[in-house]
Amino acid sequence: MRRCRKNRSGGPVRHARRPPQDGLRRVPRPGRLSLRRPAADARSLRLRCAGTALAVLSATVLFLCARIGEADGHTVATGPYGPAALAGYDLVITGYVACCLVALLRQTPYWTRQADTTVLRTALVLITLTTAVGLFWAAWGFDDVLGALRTGRQQTTEDPVSLALGRLCAVLLLAGATTLLWARAGRAARRWRAAYRNYRSLGPLWRALHAAFPQIALSAGRMPLTDAELALYRRVIEIRDGLLILRRYRTGETPPAGPSQAWRGDDHTTDAAARAEAARIAAALVRARTRTDPPAGPRPTTPPPAEPALPQTGSMEAETRWLAQIARALRSLPPPAAGRAAD
Q1: Using one digit for the tens of pLDDT, what is the confidence trace for 273-321?
Q2: Phi and psi based region of residue 73 (left: phi greater than 0; alpha: psi -120 to 50; beta: remaining)
C-alpha cells in the first residue's frame, strides 16, 4: 500500500497536476507561438503521411502512363491513355496543393489570434493572405485539367492570370517572412526623422549661442547626420554649455524659467514662459556681445538660481521640447529686441 507523504504541519503533501499534453503548449516568453493543436495527434499525422505518399505515387504513375512529349511549345500526351493520364496527373498535383493550402488556411487564423506582438500578428496576417491567394491560384489550375482531358495538350508557359497570382503570392510571402526586418527598419527611420526634426528646431538657439561663445562647439565642423540621435544629444549639450556661460550676463531679478515650471500649466502658459525665457536670453546675448555686465541691483539674500536642468519628472525628450520652444520664440522676436541673436 502506497503511503501518503506529510508536510511539517502534519497534513498530506499535495502534488501539482501535470498540464495536459494534448492542449496548446503555453510559452511564457513573448513573441513565441506554439503550433501544437489538439487535432495534431498520431493518427491524423499517419493519415497525412499516407495521403502524401499516395499523391506522390499516383502522380508518378500517371506521368509515366501519359508519355509526355513536346510539340509546338505545348506538352503533348502520346500514350494510349495519354489525355486521361495527363488530366489525372494535373488533377492529383493541383488537388494535393489545394488540400495543403486549405489545411494551412484553417490554422493561420488561430495562430494570428494567439500572437501577442504586433509584428508577429502582422506576419501571420500576411502569411494568411499568401495562403488565400495561393488557394485561388491552385483553383485556377483546374482549367488545365479540363484542357488536357479534351485535347491531350497543355501549355508549357503560364497564362497571364496564373503569372499574376504567382507573383502576388511571392510578394506576400516575402513580406510576411521579412516582417521583423522591415518593422525594425521602420522604427529606426521614425526615430531618425524625429531626432533630425528636433535637431533642426534647435538651430536658432544654438547659432545664437555659438556666435557669442564659439568655444561651446565640441568639435570643429558639422557632425554627419547619419546618427541624428547623437547629433541631437551633442547639440543639447552645447546649448546647455552656452547657457551656462551666459549666466553672468543675465539679470538676477527674475529667475529663469525651466521646463518643470512651464509644464505645470496649459499650452498658453508654456508658450508664454518660453517667450519670456527667449527674451531674457536675447537681452543677455546683447550684453555678452558688448561685454557689458548686467545692471547692478540690490544684493540678493539667496544665491542666484542655476540654469534649469532636466526636470525631475522629465527626460532627454522633455528637455529637447523645452529648448525647441525657446528656439522658436527666439526666432520670432523682433529685430530690435533680439538683435542678431536668432540669425
Answers
A1: 888 888 888 888 888 888 765 555 554 444 444 444 444 445 788 888 8
A2: left
